[in-house]
Amino acid sequence: MKQEKACRLKTVGFNAQEIEGFAELHQSEIQNGFLTSLGQEALRLLYSEIAENHNCIVVAGFQDGEAKPVGFIVGTVDCAALYRDFLKRNGLSALRVFLPRLLSWTRLRKAFETLLYPTKQCNPVLPGAEILNFAVRPAYRGTGLAQTLFLELMHRFAMMGVGQVKIVAGEGQRRAHKFYEKMGAKQVGWTSVHKGQNDLVFVVENKVSYQSMLIIHKPGMVKRVFDLFFSLLGLTVLLPFILLVAIWIRLTSRGPAFYRGVRVGRGGKRFRLLKFRTMVADAEQLGGPSTPDDDPRITKVGRILRRYKLDELPQLFNVLKGEMSLVGPRPEVPLEVDLYTPQERELLSVTPGITDWASIRFRNEGEILRGSPDPHLTYRETIRPEKIRLGLEYTKHHSFWVDLRIILTTLWAIAGGKPEVLGEMPGTPSVNLGPPERPDAVLGPPGIGSIE
After folding, report:
1. What pLDDT digit, counting tens, does each position of 363-386 carry?
2. CATH superfamily, with its number, for domain 8-208
3. pTM for this structure?
4. Are 216 and 267 in contact, with CB atoms under 8 Å apart?
C-alpha cells in the first residue's frame, strides 16, 4: 500500500471549477462508459445537476492547494428521480449539448437504455439506493483515499436512513470488484445496463447506522393528526391567496414564484423546502447567505412578505407531506448540518417545523443584522448559538401543550404583540422570549444561514 496522502473531504457547495474537475476525472478514469463518450460538456452539465440534487450524495477528496478533486464518489437514493430532475431542469441545455452526440443509432439506443435502466427491476428485492460513479486519480490509488470516500458515502447514506446500497459494475472491472468485496459488498446477480453488456450487481449492508446515533422521536398520532388537519384547513382557506401572491411575485420580478431549497429533516433525510421567493433571481451569486432587512437583494414584494412571515405559507405543503410539522426546529441546509457537533445533531431527532422558540425570539432577525458590515459573521456570533440552544430545548421538552403555546405565541408576535405577555401553559419549559443578547461565545463550529 502506498503512503497515505492527506486529503480534505467536501460534500456540498461545489463551485464551477470543482464541477469541471469531476467531469475531467470522470472522462480520464471511466474511459469506456457511455456518459464519457458524450464528452466533457455533457458530463459537466450532468455533474452540475448531481451536485445540487437532493436525491444525490457527492463526496470528493481534495489535495491542499489544488482546486480540482483527486477522487470522488457519487451515490443516489433514487436514480429515476435524478434523471427526471435533470431533464426537467436542464431540458433545453441538455437538448443542445446531447443532441449532436446522439445522431448515431448506437449512442441513441444507449441513451434510452441509460434512462430506462432505473425502471428495470432485475430483482425486486434490490435496494433503491446505489453508487453511480466512483473515480480516483491513479497517483492516489492504494493510499486509502478510495476507502475513505466509500466509508464517508456510507455515513451520508446512513444519515438518510439507507441500510442497503446497490452497486453495478461492468464484468471487466476486476479492480472495482475486489475493492467492493473488500468493503463488504456481496455479489447478488447479473444485469445488463446496455444490450450485449454484462454487469455484476453487488449489495453492501450499511454498517453505519445513523438511526442508532440518535433517539429518533417519531411524531405522535395527536401531533400528526393536528398537522394534517390544520395544514389541509390552511391550504383550503389560503390557496386563492397563495395563488395571488405567486402571480404578484411573477409580475413584479424576474424568476420563479417559489423558492425550493434543499433542507435536512428528521433522521438526516433531505427534502425540498417550499417558500415564496423574496429575493432577486440568482441571489446566491450576488451576496452572502445571511439576509439583513436592508439587503438590496430583497424585492419590494419580498419585504412585505418577510415582514409578516407570509413567505413561509407554502411550507404547509411540506407539513401535509410529512416532511415538516407546524412546530419544530427550523430545518437547515446540508452545509450547516455537516458542521453540527454530536450535541447539535440531536436537532435531527425531531421533525423540523415552520415555527419554534427560535423563530419567535428571532422574529426580527433581519433587523438585528441590519447595518452589519458582515451580516453572516454577526449571524454566527449573535444568532446561531441561541437558535441551537432553543432548538435543543424543544427536542428535550416537546409535547402537544408546548406546540400549542408556540403556535399561539407565534400568531401573537406576528400580530405585533409581545410574546413575553403570554403566560406559560401546563408542561411547558421556561424559555426566555425577550430581546436576544449578544453571546460571549459560539456554541459549536460556525454555521451558515439560509439565503431565502
Report:
1. 888 888 888 888 888 888 888 899
2. Gcn5-related N-acetyltransferase (GNAT) (3.40.630.30)
3. 0.61
4. yes
